[in-house]
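In this section we walk through a basic example: taking a raw amino acid sequence and producing a predicted 3D structure, encoded as discrete structure tokens. The instruction is simple. Fold the sequence below.
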Amino acid sequence: MLADRTTTGSPAQWGEAAVKCHDDFDADDVVVEINFGGDMATEVVKQAAERVHQRGERESNMIRIKEVSASRGKWDRAVDGSPNRLDAAVWGLTRLSKVITYIPIA
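The resulting token sequence is shown next.
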């Protein structure tokens, strides 16, 4: 984990926060859960990337989004008093565990 960028606010605000986090860490993609309103979340992030680009704060309006689907509810997956943060961390780590990298062995 590199940072907890948890935020509240309007969809436009959290969309731009997601884009900023993506750019700050030079991420490969943004993971979006599509079970409950995920199509909306994907569009919010895409629109935020466009706005940030239009303001000249990023080179491109393109942002790669990885959509994931949960087979069980959030409360079933993680109950720790802050399921949203833990759930987001689990999705991020699951995404990273599926990324294949080439590591040369000397």
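Looking at the output, two observations stand out. Residues 82 and 106 are 43 Å apart (CA to CA). The two ends are 28 Å apart (CA to CA). In the next section we compare this with other chains.
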